[in-house]
Design brief:
Elements: E1 2-4, E2 9-15, E3 25-33, E4 38-46, E5 53-56, E6 64-73, E7 80-88, E8 91-100, E9 105-109, E10 113-117, E11 128-129, E12 135-137, E13 148-154, E14 161-168, E15 171-179
Parallel strand pairs: 12-13
Antiparallel strand pairs: 1-6, 2-5, 2-7, 3-4, 3-6, 6-9, 7-8, 9-10, 11-12, 13-14, 14-15
């Protein structure tokens, strides 16, 4: 859940650098809540290279904005690195950074979090998809980005291992593992 609960807090999108041909397109929907109101709202726009753009502006004093849905579509002619960040007055905090191939879309949904869909709409990655939306890989990614996670199955029956792993601060960690 992403909540903006101060007139100083906004949600921004930025790229690692300039685009080659086309800025990336984004769409967002959110609800604004006060003690007496609950109003839905939406917005859309395009990136501005390495300059952050505000996707959801800060709420008024006494209000909160809860992000429900966000997409960033790579319509450029090359892959792009996208950062979604939380801007709190003068402090900027990175929420996620993803590499988006051509035609891929970064999707955030409240309750599910972030994921990347390839140009066919499938969850990005290789292997077979699980019902949770997580792709079960047959080997670790060769160069995973920071702040990403994945599941990997190794071995053969009857000694297969499934592990959930995360890449944080340049290191890969095994969050959980089970041998089946």
């Amino acid at each position: 859940m992403i909540i903006l609960d101060s007139p100083l807090r906004s949600l921004e999108i930025k790229l690692a650098g300039a685009v080659t041909t086309n800025e990336l397109e984004w769409v967002v929907s959110y609800v604004e809540m006060t003690t007496t109101t609950f109003v839905s709202a939406a917005g859309d726009g395009v990136s501005n290279g390495a300059t952050a753009v505000v996707a959801v502006a800060a709420p008024a004093l006494g209000a909160q904005r809860q992000i429900k849905f966000l997409t960033v579509l790579n319509v450029d002619t090359v892959a792009a690195t996208v950062t979604v960040q939380y801007h709190d007055n003068a402090v900027v905090r990175r929420i996620v950074t993803f590499d988006l191939p051509i035609g891929a879309v970064l999707v955030y949904t409240d309750g599910e979090g972030f994921r990347v869909l390839d140009s066919t709409g499938a969850v990005a990655g290789s292997g077979s998809s699980s019902s949770s939306g997580l792709t079960l890989l047959t080997a670790d990614p060769t160069s995973p980005s920071d702040d990403t996670w994945w599941a990997v199955r190794t071995g053969v029956s009857p000694t297969e291992t499934v592990a959930v792993k995360a890449r944080i601060g340049g290191a890969t960690y095994t969050i959980a593992s089970i041998t089946i």
